[in-house]
Amino acid sequence: MFWLDLVGTIASVLGLGVSLYVLGVAKDVRDAVAAAQVVARRRNLAEELDQVSSKLQQLGNFLQQEEWVAVQIRIDEILAICKMAATRWSDHLSMEHLNGVLTAVTLIQSIATRSAEVSGREVSPAEKKRLTRTHLTASGLINSARGEVRREEERNGGNDGD
Q1: Which CATH number characterizes residue 58's domain?
Q2: Which tens digit of pLDDT belongs to each residue from 29-60?
């Protein structure tokens, strides 16, 4: 009977040891999953800001060519992406860059208003200069936010070489 009790006690101690080991591994896996989710969210934000930057470049071309319908279409797309990104990913941007994205939204809305006003008539050089300056300011704000997100992605090992 003594030997059975001894074997049972040893088996219990070994079972406890295995359980503690499995618990430690599970916690490590949980932490790794959480870190991977943060990296994936940051990458999604970076991709959305890349998309906005590309559309802003197209918007600049349309402004220069005075293609007002295309300007309005691009502005709608840019505003939708920016507003969604500011809402979904606000925790991945510093307050400075989040405010920058929101300021860019306001600037782009002002471009939409001005372009609607000048549509169908000749644009003065001064008006074109103001539109261009506003566009460049908005682009700078978006690109600053892109830079912050990419920097964080690279520092935290989330950059796979793209």
Answers
A1: 1.20.120.230
A2: 888 888 777 777 777 888 889 999 999 999 99
| Within a domain: 160 | no
How many structural domains is the chain composed of?
1
pTM assigned to the model? 0.70
109 within domain boundaries: yes
Does a structural domain hold residue 22?
no
3-state secondary structure the chain: CHHHHHHHHHHHHHHHHHHHHHHHHHHHHHHHHHHHHHHHHHHHHHHHHHHHHHHHHHHHHHHHHCCHHHHHHHHHHHHHHHHHHHHHCHHHCCHHHHHHHHHHHHHHHHHHHHHHHHCCCCCCHHHHHHHHHHHHHHHHHHHHHHHHHHHHHHHCCCCCCC
